[in-house]
Amino acid sequence: MKFEDFWYVVALSKQLKSNQVLSRQVLGEWLAIFRTKNGKPVALQDRCTHRNSRLSCGKVQQGYLQCPYHGWVYDESGGVVSIPSEGENFKPRASLKAKQYHTCEQDGFIYVCLTEEIKPQFSPFSMPYYQQPGWHYVRVVHRFNNNVTNCAENFIDIPHTVSVHPGIFRKSYQQKLEMTVTRTQGTVIANYHNEDTNLGWWTRFLNPSHHKIYHSDRFFMPNITSVEYQFAPRRHLFITSQSVPETETSTLVYTDATFSYGIWSYLAIPFVWYTAKRIIGQDVKILQIQQEVIEKYGEKFAHTQADTIHVFVESIRKAIAQGKDPRTLPDKTVEVTFWV
Length: 340
What we know:
Keywords: 2Fe-2S, Iron, Iron-sulfur, Metal-binding, Oxidoreductase. GO terms for molecular function: 2 iron, 2 sulfur cluster binding; metal ion binding; monooxygenase activity; oxidoreductase activity, acting on paired donors, with incorporation or reduction of molecular oxygen. This protein is α+β, with helices and mostly antiparallel strands. It folds into two domains: 111 residues, Rieske [2Fe-2S] iron-sulphur domain (Rieske Iron-sulfur Protein); 204 residues, Naphthalene 1,2-dioxygenase Alpha Subunit, Chain A, domain 1 (Alpha-Beta Complex). 19% of the residues lie in helices and 34% in strands. The protein contains five helices and 18 strands. The strands form three sheets. Strands 11-17-16-15-14-13-12-18 form an eight-stranded antiparallel beta sheet, covered by helices on one side. A six-stranded antiparallel beta sheet has the order 1-10-9-4-3-2, with no helix packed on it. The chain has a four-stranded antiparallel beta sheet with strand order 5-6-7-8, with no helix packed on it. The relative contact order is 0.15.
């Protein structure tokens, strides 16, 4: 198993218009993304086989991609279907072919899988309640100067919220939390048992009646985190992030805040958008600082009991990096108590 075997978001569906080409990078690979005449997304290696120009700098006409340097034209399979300098003497050659990658479109995202297998063994992650009746979502995109592991861990890390998001998400270290953390089948699940209303300025809106809170954080290999809060039958929230590895130190994160707040759902949209941008913006800054220290001193972490969820995530990511299947790791459950 390799990181290339999984699906990664390369664009929002609405970003990829007809007769348009997008430049993207996943796991260090340069990609040229466009649509065929029928609207199907295509991903080719961003390299012309002729004189090594960038295909993403070219143009799309009737579902074909033309190189900006000498005008060579590529179809959806990466095959060269026209060489202007050869005119009517042009004949297709099997040797003239740009590398093509698997693509699909789901939940308003364009996905690419870099596997060399004929068919990917996994499917893209299904976003919770996407466009389901009674549910709304806010979608935001941020670039982090850090790796996928550190980004994913940050998104499901409670202890940092008091320091990084004071007042917005937590107030102070005043509550004792109990957490059950389980690693199983390439996932990490953290369930919290006694969380109250220490949610900063969210409290009045999310849980005005002080209902018992259901809170669960999940990590799905290799790069998905999903935070779930349920405060009452009509107060339900998911924060789901897909961390896309552009390079070893650049991660593009697509985040959906999906919610069902009953009659207040439409009014909540601008509030959710503003809060998501504010919180994630603060995380961008703190992870930038972390990366600067890592570059100078190396990635050496000291772990406490509250970091159990990080240890499990790292074990899964490490297994994939070593070419192993994380689903073969032994199931493990740890009971944790910490303050937040």
